[in-house]
Amino acid sequence: AGTSFKLSNGVTIPGVGFGTFANEGSKGETYKAVTHALRTGYRHLDCAWFYLNEDEVGEGIHDFLKENPSVKREDIFVCTKVWNHLHRYEDVLWSVENSLKRLKLDYVDLFLVHWPIAAEKETQEKPKIGSDGKYVILKDLTENPEPTWRAMEKIYEDGKARAIGVSNWTIHGLEQLLQFAKVQPHVNQIEIHPFLPNNELVQYCFAHNILPEAYSPLGSQNQVPTTGERVSENPTLNAIAQKGGNTLAQVLIAWGLRRGYVVLPKSSNPARIESNFKSITLSDADFEAVNAVAEGRHFRFVNMKDTFGHDVWPEEARAAISA
Ligand code: A2P
């Protein structure tokens, strides 16, 4: 998996990144997965405050580098993200310092605003949850994220992050951001897989020198679409994989890389961590066959209203419901 891309500021980013969102969340699992991924050859880790395991990622990087003196810190691309309750200027600055401490690093390669939603904090360690069980939305900062972005720019200028960007942003949000940004976002990390190809948003990003990154590139296995079919159960996709003697995950990762963006598979299973990292060649015909499966699909697993009490994608959500 030697593919890499260049961000608009010239920074090189490995095309396959290892997702560290712990499914089980049990202590030690992230450490085991991260050290196994690094030993397998992954040189890109995708982290976040929200995953509550940056400590374990940091220990994993630290121990791996100690065991492998020929690999240097600068050989590993580390991304992390600021959560919704830390969007105020000072809190964003606090968040990057907090993540750096936990990751045992003095800079990250990429720092992202995790969602285009600002929420109230209980403390810096904890989002505030309202009596309805949902996040307490900060309307002003959600509608105008300029102070948040100014803090991101400060972090970039101070060299605490070699690149900055956003995650889960729509075209509408990016248009607004590009109007006031002095440092343009280098990345937009979004959900992309054949049931949510996100073509329009991906094209918008390319047109504005923003590199897309695909999370849940295998189709968010744990979520069952309303249609009842998971990406992993699609017969056409499975036939493509079987015919070439590959796993479906390998086909989906190759499809994303060929479409020109970063893919972030995650697994806590050693054999799958390894097989996901083996690059395969996807023929033109197979590439087109995956595109054909993706055509017209628009299934998004996260229900924003349920999660945050705020609809991030009103127009797209409507399109998805009516599709
Ligand atoms: P596991 O950790 O047991 O391997 P997503 O990032 O799309 O939401 O999906 C992540 C899920 O996909 C994880 O739960 C992971 O489970 C599973 N997964 C990762 N790699 C593979 C693979 N090669 N084949 C099947 N499932 C996989």
From TrEMBL:
<comment type="function">
    <text>Catalyzes the initial reaction in the xylose utilization pathway by reducing D-xylose into xylitol. Xylose is a major component of hemicelluloses such as xylan. Most fungi utilize D-xylose via three enzymatic reactions, xylose reductase (XR), xylitol dehydrogenase (XDH), and xylulokinase, to form xylulose 5-phosphate, which enters pentose phosphate pathway.</text>
</comment>
<dbReference type="InterPro" id="IPR023210">
    <property type="entry name" value="NADP_OxRdtase_dom"/>
</dbReference>
<dbReference type="GO" id="GO:0016491">
    <property type="term" value="F:oxidoreductase activity"/>
</dbReference>
<feature type="binding site">
    <location>
        <position position="114"/>
    </location>
    <ligand>
        <name>substrate</name>
    </ligand>
</feature>
<keyword id="KW-0560">Oxidoreductase</keyword>
<feature type="active site" description="Proton donor">
    <location>
        <position position="51"/>
    </location>
</feature>
<dbReference type="InterPro" id="IPR018170">
    <property type="entry name" value="Aldo/ket_reductase_CS"/>
</dbReference>
<protein>
    <recommendedName>
        <fullName>D-xylose reductase [NAD(P)H]</fullName>
        <ecNumber>1.1.1.307</ecNumber>
    </recommendedName>
</protein>
<dbReference type="InterPro" id="IPR036812">
    <property type="entry name" value="NAD(P)_OxRdtase_dom_sf"/>
</dbReference>
<dbReference type="InterPro" id="IPR020471">
    <property type="entry name" value="AKR"/>
</dbReference>
<feature type="domain" description="NADP-dependent oxidoreductase">
    <location>
        <begin position="17"/>
        <end position="294"/>
    </location>
</feature>
<feature type="site" description="Lowers pKa of active site Tyr">
    <location>
        <position position="81"/>
    </location>
</feature>
<dbReference type="Pfam" id="PF00248">
    <property type="entry name" value="Aldo_ket_red"/>
</dbReference>
